[in-house]
Write a structure and sequence with these properties.
Blueprint (H helix, E strand, L loop, with lengths): L1 H13 L1 H9 L5 H16 L2 H4 L2 E12 L5 E14 L2 E9 L2 E2 L2 H14 L9 E2 L2 E2 L3 H14 E11 L2 E10 L8 H5 L4 E8 L5 E8 L3 E3 L5 E3 L4 E9 L3 E15 L3 E16 L9
Antiparallel strand pairs: 1-2, 1-15, 2-3, 3-4, 5-6, 7-8, 8-9, 9-10, 10-13, 11-12, 12-14, 13-14, 14-15
């Protein structure tokens, strides 16, 4: 990748006319971009259907923080994930760099054999999110479109692919229908990078600029400064799958339990697997 990038830079420097033509190529207007991207958004938000039949490696780093964002605890977990019709099976490989014992691994193998024999189903809740009907999905997407002022800011190359950068910030007094829209979208601003060829999200990062309060803050109060960064990567020239995710959460629930956490997930080594697969030792 570094070699290819060096060659590309050399070509552009040697051909200023080419560089000028590329930089001056007109950018799409946002309504046209939205029409191309919209069909892919819910799949990227709820990626269960995309991940079915894949196994992949996931590392999770969790940092708990106290006053002044001082670190109070850390943990690092390593998983081998098998995405079955019934949902993901997370095989824990190590905790804080220490491999699990043979006894613990054998127990997980037994659990895996039981899990993969379960009938496929679509639970109302998956991965901490409630599954939405097609009507609810459409309402949420409409709220995303209506909640923000979008600015097509330019082109950027990410991992060797051309992307369109779009900045977004909340509109004043938008007409929103969903709870997510009213509770969360009105407080967020950020940037999204859209793959210019496939019209999918390559990266999104956003931050809360004010507290997001649900139930007047009595149920959930997510504090300003909380942020999310997610990246996707095209795998085997077929599918765009999660590459990394970072959550920085400052929140309080029911006026009692507080959260001051940073969670970073890294995803790699995607492979297709058969239902006859046994989990690796």
């Amino acid at each position: 990748m570094k070699f290819e990038l060096t060659i590309a830079i050399a070509v552009c420097l040697a051909c200023p006319a080419f560089a000028r033509e590329a930089s001056e190529e007109s950018l799409p207007d946002f309504p046209s971009l939205w029409s191309a991207v919209k069909p892919h958004l819910m799949q990227q938000y709820d990626d269960a259907e995309l991940l079915k039949g894949y196994t992949y490696h996931r590392t999770t780093s969790m940092t708990q923080m106290g006053k002044g964002d001082s670190v109070t605890a850390t943990s690092n977990l390593e998983f081998e994930v098998y995405y079955l019709d019934s949902g993901p099976f997370n095989k824990l490989i190590s905790r804080n760099g220490v491999k699990l014992s043979e006894k613990e691994l054998k127990k997980q193998d037994e659990e895996f054999q039981k899990t993969k024999g379960k009938a496929p189903h679509r639970p109302p809740w998956r991965g901490g999110r409630r599954q939405r009907s097609p009507k609810e999905q459409e309402e949420l997407l409409n709220d995303v479109y209506n909640a923000f002022d979008f600015t097509v800011a330019g082109r950027e190359v990410r991992e060797g692919r051309n992307t369109i950068r779009v900045d977004f910030k909340p509109r004043s007094h938008p007409n929103l229908k969903t709870t997510v829209g009213k509770f969360f979208l009105t407080a967020a601003q950020g940037t999204v990078w859209i793959d210019e060829e496939d019209h999918v999200l390559a990266r999104i990062e956003f931050e809360l600029m004010k507290d997001a309060k649900f139930g007047g803050g009595l149920i959930v109060n997510i504090n300003n400064g909380s942020r999310v960064i997610r990246e996707w990567r095209k795998v085997n020239e077929e599918l765009w799958l999660p590459a990394s995710s970072e959550l920085r959460l400052k929140a309080r629930t029911f006026l009692t339990k507080g959260y001051n956490t940073r969670i970073v997930d890294q995803f790699s080594d995607y492979k297709k697997f058969s239902v006859e697969t046994r989990i690796s030792p």
